[in-house]
Structures are given as structure tokens and as C-alpha cells.
Amino acid sequence: MAGIYLHIPFCKQACHYCDFHFSTVLKRQPQMVEALKKELILRKAELNQKVKTIYFGGGTPSLLSITQLNELLTCIKNHYAVDEKAEITLEANPDDLSREKLEALSKTGINRLSIGVQSFFESDLQLMNRAHNAQEAQQAIVWAKDYFENLSLDLIYGIPKMSLQRWEENIDRALLLDIPHISSYALTVEPKTALENFIKTGKIPPVDEALAKAHFELLQSKLKAQGFINYEFSNFGKPGFFSQNNMGYWLGKPYLGIGPGAHSYGNGQRSWNLAHNIKYIRALLQNKRPFDYEKLTSKDAYNEFVMTRLRTMWGIPLKEVQQRFGSLFAHYLQAQASEHLAASRLILRDEHLIIGSTAKFLTDGIAADLFWVD
Fold first, then answer.
1. How far apart are alpha carbons 144 and 98 in whole angstroms?
2. 275 in helix, strand or coil?
3. Rounded (10°) CA dihedral 250, 261, 160, 364
4. Separation between Cα atoms, residue 159 and residue 163, nearest integer Å
5. What is the per-residue pLDDT across 329-373, written as a single tens digit (0 to 9) for each?
6. Between 14 and 148, whose confidence is greater?
7. Helix count and strand count (H, E) for the chain
8. pTM across the whole model
């Protein structure tokens, strides 16, 4: 299984917490689409297996016109072997989704929408500087259900001043919409963002880690009761609706990242494009890809394997560690895991190391303890 990720680096306005590469100068969209097509054609020899997932991320991919989306999908299908049942996802903001736009999207070949709700409360949306309001979020999902079966929404927890009760109301509103997938992320304070500045200057209180943990545990409990499976730390899906794109990342499948700032992975190498729209467009117009890369060392590859697998419900397969990395790494992993196993933060099940049900919020910290550090 291989995937193609297209980074669409445009947004109407900057969310206060976001540190992704994007621009609010929308006039370069046509040039960017041409550059994306050029990069797709230049790199077609890099994927020698069927493409099972295509993912429009960003930024805000729903800002693209139907014509532009069709051009990109046609380019991919003309130059890559795309599985006829490929999962094709578009990230969308609620304010871009009119009924007419949704009907048109459903005819492009896109078969999955991931809608960036983040919260159903106006005060939260204003704090984050989201472009939509709560009513638009609700309405977009109701309309989307008429055209798409495979739907996901994003929610953010750990927002300053968000009580446990209000978080529960957010979850309940999402559940009432009866969609099969929810992605939920803790609000993180990234360097050089407006959110970091607001906290430093005392305009809003800092993120409360204990409250975020309580939010996560409530989310786990309520979604499990409604038949959702927490198949990856931040992702919850009904059976048959796990994101194939997300699973590709966490299970180490190769993917091609197209667009400024996009990352690619495959053959033990990671590469990333220059995160600068104008320089990216100029280079591609000359049939050059502006990028850098690194060859993963055995230690890098082992650490990445541990981190990605531990975030999933399947955990770290010990036999695969032995096969891929050898006895030195396999013995090291078991030694590092021993304390967590004794405390039931890790569980050994069918030769897989899995996070204990009460320790999920600690996943990244436990993974760090298992890393090879020189």
C-alpha cells in the first residue's frame, strides 16, 4: 500500500495555534496547482506500487475549486497506478461546504471528507481564530451526510477554560451527528504562534495538562460506549471506517508528499519540500523539485518504528523488531520496557507491546523511554 499526500498551503485566516506551512495570499492558487501537477509528473517513478490512498491536506484544501481538484486527481490517475477502491480524502473547513459544493465534491472521485470542526462552541472557535462558527459546523455535517458515507470530524481538547462539562457537550454534539470517525487532538502550544504569545502575555491561561488528560479519558470512555475503536492515539473509528491514510503513516507504508513543506517517506529515506510558496512554484516551473532529505540510520528507523507502532491499537510487534533491527535492538527494547510492563503501563499480548488502557495519555512519554539514545 502506498499513499499520495498533497499539501494545499492556503488558508482564509491564521488559526492561533497552527504552525503548519500556509499562506493567506490566495491569488497564487492557480500557479500552485500547476506546480503540484508538475511535481506529481516529475516524481512518478518514485512509487512502484499501487496507490491506495490520496489525501488533500493543508492548509485548507476545500479552498480549491472543483475544477482544480479534478485537475489534480486526473494528473494522479494519468501518471500513477491508483487502486480502483482507493480512499481519497479531502480536509475541509465547514465554511467552505455549501450543499452545492458538497454535491460537486461527491462527483470528483473524493470519497471521504475530514471536516475541521474543532469545537461546537463560539467562544472556543473565537479563541482559536477559526473562520467558521458553530452553526456552520453543524450544518456542514448534516449536508455532507447526504453525499458522503465516509465522514470524519476533528475536535480539539485541552482548550484553556474548557470545563469537563463543556468538553462532554462537545463530544455529545459530535455523537448526535452520527458519523463513523472522529479525530481528536490536544491543543499544543507551538513556538512562534499567536497562542504562545497570548499565554506569555497573560491574555489567556496556559494549557492545563491535568485537564487535557481528563478530557482525553472522557473522550475514550464515551466513544468506546458508542462503538468507536481507538485504533490510533488520536483517531477513533467505527469498524470499517478507520482512515486508511492514517493507518499508512502509523504502519510505516511509503507515501509521496507533494507541495511546499510536504514530507515523503520510503526506502529508508525521508524527504521534505521547501516550505516557501513562491520559491516552490518557481522551481517547479523549471522542472526542479526544491527539497532536502535524510537517510534514516538504524537507530532513527528503530525509534520511528517504536513511536508510530506504539500509538496504534496493534502495538509494537516484537518479532518484527528482531527481524528488522536485530537482536541488539530487540533485547534493548525488552529491557527498556520492563519497568512499564511491571506497572501495567505496557502490556505484552501475542508478542506485541501495547499501551495499557489506563496509560494511553502517556503514550508519547513511554515511547520516548523505549527510544535508543546515544
1. 9
2. coil
3. 30
4. 9
5. 999 999 999 999 999 999 999 999 999 988 999 999 999 999 999
6. 148
7. 14, 15
8. 0.95
DSSP per-residue string spanning 257-320: EESTT-EEEETTEEEEE-S-HHHHHHHHHTT---EEEEEPPHHHHHHHHHHHHHTBTT-EEHHH
Residue-wise pLDDT for 231-263, tens only, equals 999 999 999 999 999 999 999 999 999 999 999
End-to-end CA distance of the chain: 33
What's the grid cell of residue 351? 508478542
Residue 279 CA neighbour count, 13 Å, CB half: 8
Distances from the Cα of 365 to the Cα of 30, 157, 346, angstroms: 43, 19, 12
Give CA–CA dist 258/82, Å, rounded. Answer: 16
Measured between alpha carbons, how far is 332 from 297 in angstroms, rounded to an integer? Answer: 17
Q: At what angle do helices 298-310 and 327-342 cross, to 10 degrees?
A: 40
Closest CA to 363 of 245, 252, 234: 234
> Are 156 and 118 spatial neighbours (Cβ–Cβ below 8 Å)?
yes
User: All 3 cell numbers of residue 30?
Assistant: 492557480
Backbone angles phi, psi at 282, to 5 degrees: -60, -40
Say how many C-beta atoms besides its own lie within 10 A of residue 205's C-beta. Answer: 10
Phi, psi (rounded to 5 degrees) for 230: -85, 75
Joined grid coordinates for residue 340: 512499564
Residue bearing cell 451526510: 145
Cα dihedral angle (6, 12, 17, 23), rounded to 10 degrees?
60
Strands 51-58 and 112-118: unpaired
Considering only CA atoms, which of 66, 59, 37, 72 is closest in space to residue 114?
59
pLDDT at 193: 78
Cα 53–Cα 154–Cα 159 angle in degrees, nearest 5? 145
pLDDT for the residue 17: 82
* Phi, psi (deg, nearest 5) at residue 304: -65, -40
Instruction: Calculate Rg over the CA atoms of the chain.
Output: 21
Q: Could you give the dihedral angle defined by the CA atoms of residues 75, 76, 79 and 85, in that order, rounded to the nearest 10 degrees? A: -140
CA distance 49 to 256: 12
